Amino acid sequence: SFNAIPLGGFVRPRGENDPDIPDGLSAAKPGVRLGVLFAGPAMNLIVGILLAMLLVYTYGVPAADKVLISYVDPDSPAQSAGLVAGDIVLRFDNQPVSSVSQLIEMINARRGQAVEMLVLRDSQELLLTATPRLDPPENKGALGVVLGNPIEKVGIAGSMTYGFRQTYEYGRALLTLPMRLMSGEAQPQEGRLVGYKGMYEIYTGINNPIFFFMIISISLGLLNLMPIPALDGGRILLTLPELIVRRRVPIQIENFLNAAGFLLLIALLIYVNLQDFINPAVFPWDK
């Protein structure tokens, strides 16, 4: 449908809430209804996976077994040693380097001692000598660098593997967020709901349309499967007993629950969008 205010969309199958309409959705067998109800969230998840694959294929993936110097502090031991951003650390104190955490431990274990570092720079290996600080300034490391992983391009097969993995990791983080909030593992700001204004700020903040639409699509797919009346998950929950006990939940009760759930969702939508203006969310790039 075309709407006067083009925010959101919906699908309204024939006979969705009336089993008396011949050949309508509500009159169909429970297996058919479940297939239709699962189709929407499934398409959201499939689109999310495809976007994750495109994201990985376009931008590459971090090489977890390699360590990159992404930033060098001025007047730091790293700068004095000749390290520059973009160097890849191959060896530290004659030991192979295979992870960021390993290199941090090695640096801290050699504070105050001159050590040799073998780095790769523009396809050339360089041997440098650095002395990690015994007492670095506040919020600074002993060597004075920011470490990360270099980005490597992957082919189509690799993008498929990493695309599925990225979708799984994001979905798992989303589904476990309530438990992580209650345990204190996640900060309350991470569970903050945002409306159209908040989503626009996220879109402009991350500056990556593929990633933005990937997380939106995966989020929609998973949230629509939640057992909340009016959502696909709520309708699925009301359909499942029919497969088990061969008796349908009375259509009056089903329609009442879905209507009540719809009203609550609209109220939540209005509240969340008002909060975007009254109490705007703070994002990492705003700090």
Write a concise keyword list for the protein shown above.
287 residues, alpha+beta, two-stranded antiparallel sheet, 49% helix
Structure, explained:
The protein is α+β, with helices and mostly antiparallel strands and 287 residues long. It contains nine helices and eight strands. The strands form two sheets. Strands 2, 3, 4, 5, 6 and 7 form a six-stranded antiparallel β-sheet that branches. A two-stranded antiparallel sheet has the order 1-8. Helix 1 runs antiparallel to helix 7, helix 1 packs across helix 8 and helix 4 crosses helix 7. The longest helix is centred in the N-terminal third of the chain and has 30 residues. The mean pLDDT is 90.
Main sheet?
Answer: 6 strands, antiparallel
- Name the beta content range: 5-15%
What's the total helix number? 9
Average pLDDT taken over every residue: 90
Chart the SSEs and their pairings.
Elements: H1 30-59, E1 61-62, E2 67-72, H2 77-81, E3 88-92, E4 95-96, H3 100-109, E5 115-121, E6 124-130, E7 145-148, E8 151-152, H4 156-175, H5 177-183, H6 196-206, H7 209-223, H8 232-245, H9 251-278
Helix pairs in contact: 1-4, 1-7, 1-8, 4-7
